[in-house]
Amino acid sequence: MPKNYQSLETISLTNHLPYIHAGEIPEITHIDDPALDVLIDFKSVKAITIRQNAPITDARAKMQACGVHMLLVINQEHGVIGLITSEDILGEKPVLAAQEKFISRAEVKVSMILTPIEKIIAISYETLRLAKVAHIIQTLNQGKQHYALVIDHKDNTNNLIIRGMFSLSQISKQLDKNVLDDFLPASTLAELNRKIDN
To answer: Nearest to residue 38, comparing CAs of 176, 186, 160?
Structure first.
């Protein structure tokens, strides 16, 4: 080495230590915590996708391999055109699609049973700055959906991009309470607060 560098001071470690995970989210969240605490942010968590022409068996296998219940569905240009859930695959949708197209269940493609992007709740990232977890639950409740996409502006332009998403199952994990049990009846934030606090 041309220059004289001193070695750095080192630390002795114990046999195991926790480590930081990219996109780590708080272990326990409360209903009045910021909505951003329950956002699955694609800036720090990789979005898991599947092509629209993939068989639903491939989608199910990918969900199992990745430990998720939902995949974003993309077209040939890598644009998101919808989403598919494990409920979609394991429910009646494949049977109906197979009957309608006169094909076997194994031939059913993701595009035949996905929820199109136009039918998915979308929330602007800007509106989340002051929002609470309860606002997200109430929005999903009102829309009778388990997922919402979060839309942002790409690189400070007018071009829109999917920044992340909310998932009721993820929110349930973070609240340590199954909000799916309370999904339909609450009609106001106050009522939702009472249900979750009980």
So the answer is: 176
CATH number of 35-197: 3.10.580.10
CB 153 within 8 A of CB 161: yes
Q: Where are the alpha helices (DSSP H) in 29-115?
A: 56-66, 86-90, 93-101, 110-113
**d(Cα 151, Cα 117) in Å, to the nearest integer?**
12
Is the pLDDT at 30 greater than 60? The verdict is: yes
The per-residue pLDDT for range 147-161, each reduced to its tens digit, is 999 998 888 777 889
| Each residue's pLDDT tens digit, 170-197 | 999 999 888 876 554 444 555 555 555 5
Could you tell me the residue ranges of all domains in the chain? 35-197
> How large is the greatest C-alpha to C-alpha distance in the chain, in angstroms?
76
Asked if 53 contacts 30 with a C-beta cutoff of 8 angstroms, the reply is: no
Which tokens is 165 given?
A: 């998403």
